């Protein structure tokens, strides 16, 4: 794995650096700290008051561009972060709020029913549709000049047949604004999967394009057929043979190692059945494995907090409560929004150690609605 050897840029606020240090992040990865990459980030800040600089990142994280976005926000200009899914946007909202409040920079969310008066925030985390509505509102109410930067994550969504048009319309208006106004809006677009990266760069008024192939966390791709687990790449050799249900075996091992596990299932019914099956397995093991009980004792207060939160929102699902007693839960569209938020927070706080979910967790998106 590539070593993290580069220091944070000198112009990044000490308060922001301290926030990352508290998260265990002391340095930048090589691809983040490379001379060209830091020049891009520096230029995005230094040319802020001048030309129409464009920067297109192909990377796996929003963290690095937070530095430039924070610098723009520190001048009082607004910064918009645009993400495709509600669940991802909420995650990023919580992270940026915790970070930027160190410098008293207000960040709000335009996610689902959430909305705020433009005078109440400097940073905004939006879904695609809400970002489009927000920029339209800024134009109609004549405060578009207050926007200094827009960060678009998962830029490859511009090719999506149903939602790509919203991104294209929004960025086209910004490009037109930049042609006619002295106060430019910086555009940062990021993607890990776009084949037409340089074409998009040309469309964004010849954006600077930066590509990186480094992945901080290595992925091991395996496939389970029957009781055998094989490597997908290479010679497809068998790396393991299971004596019982492979899914339950892997979940059990993860629990013993105190590692979180996310299991994606295709249907609501199967998600519930899988979570309960793992919980029943843990119940059988509790009498012979003290370490498993220690894991649960460590999370007892957190799990009780989640349970109380679910009950406050009227949850009477016995299955979800039974699984939760073992640090396990499920997440699907059959749960209310409030119930899903409680479970998402529990998994984010590492109190729920095994989460069985349908695609609802990863692909929540909202309909395009006018913003009031």
UniProtKB/TrEMBL annotation:
Q: Show the InterPro entries listed in the entry.
A: DEAD/DEAH_box_helicase_dom, Hel308_SKI2-like, Helicase_ATP-bd, P-loop_NTPase
The protein's superkingdom reads Eukaryota
Q: Which residues form the Helicase ATP-binding domain?
A: 69-212
Recorded GO molecular functions are: ATP binding; helicase activity; hydrolase activity; nucleic acid binding
Parts forming coiled coils: none
| Database matches in PROSITE patterns | HELICASE_ATP_BIND_1 (PS51192)
Which Gene3D superfamilies would you find in this protein's record? P-loop containing nucleotide triphosphate hydrolases
Q: Does the keyword Lyase apply?
A: no
Per UniProt, the keywords (alphabetical) are: ATP-binding, Helicase, Hydrolase, Nucleotide-binding
Q: Which residues cross the membrane?
A: none
Q: Does the keyword Nucleotide-binding apply?
A: yes
State the protein's name.
Helicase ATP-binding domain-containing protein
């Amino acid at each position: 794995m590539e070593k993290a050897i580069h220091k944070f840029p000198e112009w990044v606020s000490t308060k922001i650096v301290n926030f990352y240090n508290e998260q265990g992040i002391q340095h930048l990865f090589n691809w983040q700290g490379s001379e060209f990459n830091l020049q891009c980030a520096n230029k995005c800040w230094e040319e802020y008051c001048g030309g129409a600089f464009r920067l297109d990142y192909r990377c796996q994280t929003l963290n690095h561009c937070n530095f430039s976005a924070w610098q723009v926000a520190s001048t009082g200009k607004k910064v918009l972060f645009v993400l495709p899914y509600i669940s991802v946007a909420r995650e990023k909202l919580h992270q940026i709020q915790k970070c930027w409040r160190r410098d008293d920079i207000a960040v709000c969310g335009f996610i689902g029913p959430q909305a705020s008066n433009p005078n109440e925030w400097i940073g905004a985390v939006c879904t695609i549709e809400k970002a489009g509505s927000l920029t339209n509102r800024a134009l109609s109410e004549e405060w578009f000049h207050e926007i200094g930067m827009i960060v678009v994550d998962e830029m490859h969504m511009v090719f999506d047949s149903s939602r790509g048009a919203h991104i294209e319309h929004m960025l086209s208006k910004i490009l037109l604004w930049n042609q006619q106004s002295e106060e430019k809006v910086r555009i940062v677009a990021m993607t890990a999967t776009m084949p037409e990266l340089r074409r998009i760069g040309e469309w964004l008024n010849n954006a600077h394009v930066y590509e990186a192939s480094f992945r901080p966390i290595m992925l091991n791709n395996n496939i389970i057929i029957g009781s055998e687990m094989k490597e997908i790449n290479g010679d497809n050799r068998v790396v393991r043979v299971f004596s019982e249900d492979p899914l339950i075996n892997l979940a059990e091992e993860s629990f013993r190692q105190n590692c979180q596990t996310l299991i994606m299932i295709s249907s609501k019914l199967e998600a519930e059945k899988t979570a309960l099956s793992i919980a029943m397995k843990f119940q059988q093991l509790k009498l012979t494995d003290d370490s498993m009980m220690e894991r649960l004792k460590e999370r007892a207060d957190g799990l009780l907090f989640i349970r109380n939160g679910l009950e406050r929102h009227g949850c009477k699902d016995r299955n979800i409560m039974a699984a939760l007693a073992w640090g396990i839960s499920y997440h699907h569209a059959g749960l209310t929004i409030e119930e899903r938020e409680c479970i998402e927070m529990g998994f984010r706080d590492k109190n729920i150690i095994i989460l069985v979910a349908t695609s609802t967790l990863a692909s929540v998106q909202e309909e395009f609605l006018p913003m009031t």
